[in-house]
Write a structure and sequence with these properties.
Blueprint: H1 4-18, E1 23-27, H2 38-45, E2 50-56, E3 59-64, E4 69-73, E5 78-83, E6 92-98, E7 103-108, E8 114-118, H3 127-130, H4 141-146, H5 155-160, H6 170-180, H7 192-212, E9 253-257, E10 260-264
Antiparallel strand pairs: 1-6, 2-3, 3-4, 4-8, 5-7, 6-7, 9-10
This protein binds a DNA duplex (16 and 16 nucleotides) through helix 6.
DNA sequence: CCGCACCCCTGTGCGC
DNA sequence: TGCGCACAGGGGTGCG
């Protein structure tokens, strides 16, 4: 579910309430997707205080005072919610009990997501993050454009490739391509510099707008307090195949690119 | 490097 | 009502 804006909203919400809290205990409710056993995970984090909560690509990071880091990848249906202690629910996977008695719960219906604990210095050696490209909101559109202009792959696939640019998923790829008037099957080396820079400027706009609106909630996404986002009400193309384009009125089409449904307007985004 | 198939899981919505 | 299929915010692998 969560792409960059959703993880960013969760990180900001958690930062506001978790800094200074100490992890008192870990409950590995469903250890099937843990990369280590619950005792090993607990040994790295129990007794440590939260220093900061941040995000890199689509990964949520909780930095601890002992130098360790908790990393959550939410994949399609993961949630990280903080609130009062409550009984275990159906999709709870790993629960953290804090020193004030509150609960930080990682839940994930489909169990694609995971949580990992890194010892001090370990995060920097995590190959997943080492391969991730630049943050789109911290990088000038011209620099981002340079990463796709020499590529022969389809621009939609390039946007989804975390090594090209970090944090973009199916929603924001489709929305930014529509805003830029670019067909998802256009090859990177056919965009032209102006087109590529326009695309990444629109990507920045749509990501910022989605963060401001608390993210997009399709089915599962909720922020750190358990609240839904609102940006799904602003979708121009995502999930709207067969509906009229809000800009020109043409009926929206969908094609598969990189194995993902890509919805586009045949008039605003003409065939390359 | 590119594109595709398939896998990891569970749930929902739709056509028959 | 029930069944079977397609599809879902992600990412990894393996093959041609």
């Amino acid at each position: 579910m969560p792409e960059l804006p959703e993880v960013e909203v969760i990180a900001r919400g958690l930062h506001a309430v978790l800094v200074g809290r100490v992890i008192a205990a870990v409950e590995p409710v469903d250890p099937t997707r843990l990369s280590e056993d619950g005792a090993a995970l607990a040994a790295k984090v129990v007794g440590a205080g939260v220093v900061r909560v941040s995000r890199r690509a689509k990964v949520l990071l909780i930095g601890l005072g002992n130098g360790a880091t908790l990393a959550f990848h939410l994949k399609m249906t993961g949630r990280v919610v903080h609130g009062p202690m409550r009984p275990v629910e159906r999709h709870d996977r790993t629960r953290f009990i804090l020193d004030d008695g509150s609960l930080l719960c990682f839940a994930d219906m489909r169990r694609f997501g995971y949580v990992r604990a890194f010892a001090p210095g370990g995060l920097e050696t995590w190959d997943f993050l080492c391969r991730v490209g630049p943050e789109p909101l911290d990088t000038p559109p011209a620099a981002l454009a340079g990463r796709v202009l020499s590529r022969s792959g389809r621009i939609k696939a390039l946007l989804l490739d975390q090594a090209v640019v970090a944090g973009v998923g199916n929603i924001y790829a489709d929305e930014s391509l529509h805003r830029a008037g670019i067909h998802p099957q256009t090859r990177g080396n056919r965009l032209g510099r102006a087109g590529a820079e326009r695309l990444f400027a629109h990507l920045q706009d749509v990501l910022r707008q989605a963060i401001a609106e608390n993210g997009s909630s399709i089915r599962d996404y909720v922020n750190a307090s358990g609240d839904a986002g609102a940006f799904q009400n602003s979708f121009a193309v995502y999930g709207r195949k067969g509906s009229p384009c809000a800009v020109c009125g043409a009926i929206l089409f969908a094609v598969k690119v990189a194995g993902r449904t890509s919805t586009f307007c045949p008039r605003c985004q003409p065939e390359p």
